């Protein structure tokens, strides 16, 4: 999952990025509204975390422009303001949720997980496909109850496929949603990770759809 963090406080921005990366997310950052608007308008994100009190362009304006341009990624608003009117303005501009500063990092991570679940049409942090179960809250994968050790990149690939179970996901989509701007998108890394996952899982749940991409499905024909 790929997250955009738009926060001008550099210490808080770094703390958010560190927590998100530890949770298995790919993260891009911006420190002002103009940069944040550009990234959110040109790159595919699964969630954006947006501060309202930004320099250059305020958060409400950024959000309004994203929605006007049909950018539909879930947006979690961060604000130091306690006035109910600011929260209402954020929701009216198109925010999906908000957190008031100061906050616990665990709360932000929980809200990010909830927004991703909601966007994918899932009600739980647990994703099950045949003998494979993925716990998004703990970043944990088991096969028939036995823990499987995955690298962070392997986990990201599997998590995205399982969160979109039954749908064909192209290599381009995987690359765009799993890696930050600095990732080499011309490499065959996705194919390598798919191969490693198949070996580690020992379960035939990842299907290659020739010319289209990959699909996770339940063995036995159930998707």
The ordered string of helix (H) and strand (E) elements is: EHEHEHEHEHEEEEHHHEE
Q: Return the domain count.
A: 2
Largest sheet: 5 strands, parallel
| CATH architecture level-2 label of the largest domain | 3-Layer(aba) Sandwich
CATH top level of the largest domain is Alpha Beta
Helix content: 40-55%
Q: Could you name the CATH topology of the largest domain? A: Rossmann fold
Strand order, biggest sheet?
2-1-3-4-5
Whole-number average pLDDT?
90
Strand residues, percent: 15-25%
Helix/strand structural class: alpha/beta
Corresponding CATH superfamily of the largest domain? Response regulator
Q: Can you tell me the overall shape?
A: elongated
The number of E-state strands comes to 11
Helices, by number, come to 8
Rg calc: 18 Å
Distance, first to last CA: 22 Å
Low-confidence stretches: none
């Amino acid at each position: 999952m790929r997250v955009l963090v738009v926060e001008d406080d550099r210490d808080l921005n770094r703390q958010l990025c560190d927590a998100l990366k530890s949770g298995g997310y790919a993260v891009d950052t911006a420190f002002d509204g103009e940069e944040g608007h550009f990234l959110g308008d040109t790159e595919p994100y699964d969630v954006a975390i947006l501060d309202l009190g930004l320099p250059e362009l305020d958060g409400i304006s950024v959000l309004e422009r994203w929605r006007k341009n049909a950018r539909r990624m879930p947006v979690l608003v961060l604000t130091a303001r306690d006035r109910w009117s600011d929260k209402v303005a954020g929701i009216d501009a198109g925010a999906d949720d908000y957190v008031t500063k100061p906050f616990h990092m665990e709360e932000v991570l929980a809200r990010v997980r909830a927004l991703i679940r909601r966007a994918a049409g899932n009600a739980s942090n647990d994703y099950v496909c045949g003998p494979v179960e993925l716990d998004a809250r703990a970043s944990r994968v088991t096969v028939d109850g036995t823990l499987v050790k995955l690298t962070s990149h392997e986990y990201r690939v599997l998590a995205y496929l399982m969160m979109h179970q039954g749908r064909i996901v192209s290599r381009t989509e995987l690359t765009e949603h799993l890696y930050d701007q600095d990732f080499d998108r011309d490499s065959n890394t996705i194919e390598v990770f798919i191969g490693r996952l198949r070996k580690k899982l020992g379960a035939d749940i990842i299907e290659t759809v020739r010319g289209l991409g990959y699909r996770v499905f339940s063995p036995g024909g159930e998707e």
